[in-house]
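Structure in, sequence out. Go:
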């Protein structure tokens, strides 16, 4: 399971199966200084007996694609997506959302990912519930 986010906190006790951590940003750290990626990983693969993730035995590949200032670029995602395809990832999680549904390189890469039999799980954004408030990439 690839988690594209802010990373996973390095010293977190509830993950035993982190296979790889990669950084696609311009910051020189593999740690999650915001907590969002760690939270998402916990929902997916947390191993705390009082609050198990829905797949606690899954292998986690943590892709840092956001800086500590919550900045990201399409090019970082494209490079990371290419790597996920190259290592034959099974499932890719994007707990992200943004209004730029016209980001054609991003959208086309999402189509390529699914064409490579990678299951993509994506958030739809937090702007709803009115018409026009659903966000990319889950559109």
């Amino acid at each position: 399971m690839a988690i594209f986010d802010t990373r996973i906190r390095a010293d977190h006790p509830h993950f035993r199966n982190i296979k790889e951590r990669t950084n696609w940003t311009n910051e020189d750290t593999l740690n999650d200084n915001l907590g969002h990626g760690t939270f998402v990983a916990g929902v997916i693969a947390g191993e705390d007996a009082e609050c198990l993730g829905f797949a606690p035995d899954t292998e986690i590949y943590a892709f840092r694609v956001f800086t500590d200032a919550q900045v990201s670029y399409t090019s970082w995602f494209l490079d990371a997506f290419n790597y996920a395809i190259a290592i034959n990832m099974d499932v890719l999680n994007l707990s992200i959302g943004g209004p730029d549904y016209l980001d054609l390189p991003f959208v086309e890469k999402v189509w390529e990912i699914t064409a490579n039999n990678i299951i993509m799980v994506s958030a739809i954004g937090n702007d709803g519930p009115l018409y026009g408030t659903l966000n990319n990439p889950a559109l």
